[in-house]
Each structure stands twice: as C-alpha cells, then as structure tokens.
Amino acid sequence: MIVLPLGILWFGAVLLAILDGTRTKNALLAIGLLASALLATIWLGFDIVANGPRSMVIGGWEQGVGITLSVDTLGIIFATLSLTVLLAALVFETANRVRARVFPALVLFMGVGLTGLFFTGDVFNFYVFFEIAMISAYVLASYGETPRQFRAAFLFIVVNLLGSMLFLISIAAIYHITGRLDMAGIAAQIPLVAESPVLLIATLIFVAFSTKLGLFPFHFWLAPVYTGTRPSVAAILSGALANIGSYGLLRFGADLLPRELADGAPVLIVLGTVSIIYGAVQSVSRHSPSEVLAYSAIGQVGYIMIALAIGGEVGFFAVILYAVINGLNKGLLFLTVGLRGWLVGASFVVGAFSVAGVPPAAGFLGKISIFWAAIEDDAWSIVFLVFLGSALSFLYMFQLYQRRFWIAREDEVESSRLPQVIVTALAIGLLIVGLWPEPLLDITDHAVSGLLDSPAVGVSP
Fold it and tell me: Domain count of the chain?
C-alpha cells in the first residue's frame, strides 16, 4: 500500500516520457494515472488513520541501508493536497490543449518527487525526492517557451538551486554530528548534541524551506516566476510545490529540531508579520491578476510562520489546516487567470472569500485556527495582525474582482466550458470544506497528535 502511489506515478512518468503528451489520448492517460495515484494515497490514508503509521524498506534491505518509506497522517495530508492540485492543473491544461510533449510526464515526475518526499523516513532520501520535484519544476517553469517564460525559469532555477545547496549542506552537517540519516535516529540524537552547531543547521534548513515558500525576505524570485509562467504552472508551483516548505518546516522543526524551533520563534513571528503586511500592501498596489496573486502568496506564507512560531497543539494544528486551505486557494485562483464567464466569476469570489477568511469559504477555518492559537498563547498583537491581514486581503481581492468581472467588456469572449468546470469544482470543494469541516478538522487533529507523540516516524513495518 505504501509503494502503490509511488509505483503508479513512477512507471506512469517513465511511460509518458516516451509518448507525445500533446496528443489528447496520452494526456488523458496521464490524468488517469495521476487520479489512480491520488485514490491509492487516500486509500492508504484510511489505513494510516485506522491502524497507525506504516514503515518499510524498499527492496528488502536492512533498516538504514535501503530507502525507508515511513508514512503518517501528516504525510498523507500533504501528499493528497499536492496530488489534487497537480491533477486539477493537468486536467485544466489538457482542456486548453497541451503545448509541449513532456508536460504530462513532468507533472507525474513532480508527483513522484512530492509523494516520495512526504513518505520518506530519512533525510537523504528526502533530499533525493526533493530534487526530483525541483527538476520537474525547473522545466515546467519554462513551459510555453516564450522569452518571458525562459527568464522566469532561469530566475527560478538560480534561486532554488541555492536553496537546494543549503539543504544538502544541512543534511551533511546533521550526519556529521549525529551519525544518522534516518529521522527517528536523528530525533533521538539531536538532544544529546551541543546546541550551537544544531542551531546553525536549523538556520540553514529554515532558509532553504523559506526560499521555497517565498517568505520575506526570501521572496524576490516569487512574483517574477508566478507572473511569467502559464496559469496551470503557477497553480502547480504555488499549490503543490510550495507544500515542500510547509511540510519541511513541520517535519524538521516540530519533529526533529523542536528545541531550535522554540529558540527561533521570535524571528519567525517578525518575518511572518512582515510577510503578511508586505504581501498585502504590494497586492493592493498591483493591477495584474497574476501579480496580485503572487504577492498575496507571500502574505499568506506569513500566517503559516506565525502559527509555527506559536507551536504546540494549537499552533501546529493551525499550520497544517492553513497550509492545506492555502494550497487549494492558490490552485483555484491561479487557474482563473485569463478565463472569462459567470462560472469563473463565481468561482473567483469563493477563492477570494477563502483568502480573506470570509465564511462559508474554507479559508475562514484557517484564519480562525490562527486566531484561536494566538488567543491560547495570549498573543493579542497577533490577533490584531490576523484581523488587519484579513481586511487587507479582502480589499485587494475585491479590487481584483472589480477590475476583472464587475465591468463587462465588449471585446471579451467567454472561455470554453471545461476549464470553467474545473475551477468551479475546486470552488465547490472549498465551499464543502467550509460548510462541512469535520473530516478535515479530524484528520488534522490526528496528524498533530502523531506529530507531538513521536519525534519522527520510526515505526515497525
């Protein structure tokens, strides 16, 4: 069950790599394979929730030698989110006609990297899967092959290679001071190591993941890349690939380096606050839909940092819940860029309400979770920050809606029906989560319990 989603994605990606992805039948094959992997992941998730975390070593190798896969509820949540966004983007691009033969294969390879990263049980294989996802993203960033997209891809590659290098250095340093690469062993050894070198390692890891997320002041690459790529690629980068940052900070911070996370909480609060204000102010001042959404993404990352700094059960609960909803929000909103029609307008309203935290959209749950975490921590300044950030979010989303959908233009042509249906389905999903949140809240609570009970996933097969 653990290997099944990875196996479907890997063999599917290899098969699609030799086929012409611009042909509709091959793109549909990729959609079927990605949907099968998503269903297999959900099936595995039911088993994890019912019976607890699972672990295995691929190929029958001994523990610590072969590739260890260790799956808990936290990994299932992020894998399901990422595959859902990838599937929506792939269907969307297929409906608009795939323009490069490698696009479906790249989406599946990114699915391999992200799923393996969320399922791995040791830090080196985390890096390997991390790079599989990033290599796919490097090529996808140039999808469309216009000069603007090549420039965006070049910037994306340069900045994220720097983040990857910092992360690899961190892994080497962890192995040097602990002698372990498995997460369970690292979690046991870290408390025995002097605090100074571990704090430096934690800082490098934080910078690496913050670069992936686009947190201020590591955000400078994000807006040019998100605005320079096609809507489907922007949705993938913001709604799926960015999950590496949220998951990585939770797995390495809360799981492996909790002492260093607590020490760095004041810094996280400062950077999170600046990101929220900076992203919102920049979004208010922009006119292009892609630019507004790009700077909004910078601001939304700040809420995740604030909740991570608060920590504990309520803080980690807010991080997971907000990361999931934010991924869906960005996937939906970036896919609406360039579309027209009343269904698109209605779907955009749902996404905008979700970003601003207005019920009944799902984003209300994310904002309330951070609001509650701040009250539990007696941090009233953060409560005010959440209100201020939400008000600014509502302002720039309303401005964007007014410019795009409020005033009809005579030269506008309504988009084809299938892309509208795709964004409408995502919007309905956000409404369902907002109106019936119990399943998401329950599985998030289950993930937090597993995160706090065990420093790392290290269970027997």
Answer: 1
